[in-house]
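User: I'll paste a sequence; please echo it back and then give the predicted structure.

Assistant: Echoing your sequence first, then the prediction.
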Amino acid sequence: MDVMGDKGTLFETGRFVQPSGAEPVRDELGDMGEAVEETRLALAAQSGDAEASSVLGAMLLRRGDLDAAEPHLRAATAAGDRAAANNLGVLLHQRGYADEAAGWWRIAAVAGSAAAAHALGRHHRERGDEPAAEYWLRQSAEQGHVLGAYALADLLEHRGDVGAEHWMRAAAERGHREAAYRLARALDRTAGHGEETPADNAVAEAEQWYRQAAARGHRRAALHLGAILEKRGELREAGRWYLTSAKDGEPQAACALGFLLRDAGDTESAAVWWLRAAQDGDGNAANALGALHAERGETQTAERWYRAALDAGDDNGAYNLGLLCAEQGRTAQAEQWYRRAAYAGHREAANALAILLLRGGDTTGAEPWFSKAAEAGSVDAAFNLGILYAGRDEDAMALRWYERAAAAGHAEAALQVGIARLREGDEQEAERHLRCAAGGGSAEGAYRLAALLDARRPLEPAHELGEIVHEKTECEEWYERAASQGHRRAQVRVGMLASARGDVVEAARWYRAAAEAGSRNGAFNLGLLLAREGSEPEAAVWWARAANAGHGRAALRLALVYARRGELAEGQKWADRAVALGPTEVAERAGRLRDALREELSA
């Protein structure tokens, strides 16, 4: 057989050779009409021109006219045209004669056709002959055939061969979009597992390949690129890629686009994309629609979408159904849905189920669900376990779970650990945890941290006239943070600090806030401040509130006020109250005042 030259070939679906440098297509029509060119090729083929037969056969094969293409391809193949041999294999494969097709591909591959070698490799892999598949795919890949490189990489990756990345990269560099996407995914995994490639470099390279694949129309690559950009805060570009992917039919991208729009305040547009994603089977989008309708009070519609999410395999659907039923007071149904989600491994559902059981008095049933949720990583469940054990006076176990929740950033758990460390006398560890609690938004944590720092402060000398008052200390700042969050003791303390600085207005503001929130100390101090400012009648009102809440000194102050007014019976009543409330010093003074008033009344 004569040496076969490079002839026009086609390979568009894994079987046709793509136009490339390795196998150039020679059936370009230029400015001539296809019909004219086909006629010219037919005349040349009739005169024995093998090249014309090959190109004409390829043209007819591309058109799907197998019967007309076959004789031309066979004639060109008989004349030694390797491109025709490859395309004859394609034709026979389409007719269902895979083994005969493989025979022609072998002839073309041996003659140097990279496209045929790729097709032959695919043929052997489909039949489970991996050694033969690897041999022919490697022949194709080493000749620069992009599909051969990708197929070889896929085979090697399936076997866990380290050489897979080299060929995947080679295919990606030649423009294969799926190779670029898979290379990016592999780099993502490398970054996640902290392998040899530095994580930042791997992420940057992954982004580059996602971009290449997305630019070539790979919708999953566009989705991942959007996620990278969103995480980095580049929301506008992220939205563009999500939109591109969503328009190409990627439900997850439509769902992600919906969340971006919701966060931007465009709930109506978000709902449109969630609806599109949910209708395509995205459970997360169905849950989002359910939550949207639940917020609007449309519980029946919300329930329908939560059920759709569950049908799509999203366990959040069952959890959300449980929340919906619990809000409506349908406790039995809520428990049913929580259980379904919890048995499927939903940790927050397990925690919610445990809370439901605990509220129903089933402590024994609640504990294992708290444990299951906590072991699965639920921070709230770990904290709840701490509360459960603390209620049983099992302090060591309680502390263990509090520490676990605190390590995950749970502010109230950090507070409990801080309190425990204070009891143990470990101020350094206590401070560390109290800072975590305060920083996480715990008002009690901020107050206790301030108190800890306050106790360490040296006494400051009194300010002389004209001296500039010092800036606020850290402990004062923490007191103020706790006070601004409504912590009554902190409000009283901030008021005291303001009063010490001579800022009567600020002191009164904080005392009043504490008093109105129910603080008896706040009410008492506000009364003192008002009395000093000459507003004794208003002061008496606040002292009465404090005394009625159990403040002995306030009761004594009221007794003195009424005694000075000459309202001896009322004074005696409050003196009796002060004696009962104490403390000892107050009780003694109140007792003497009461006796004096009694003598005066009996005189």
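The chain has a mean pLDDT of 89. Residues 584-602 form the longest helix (19 residues).
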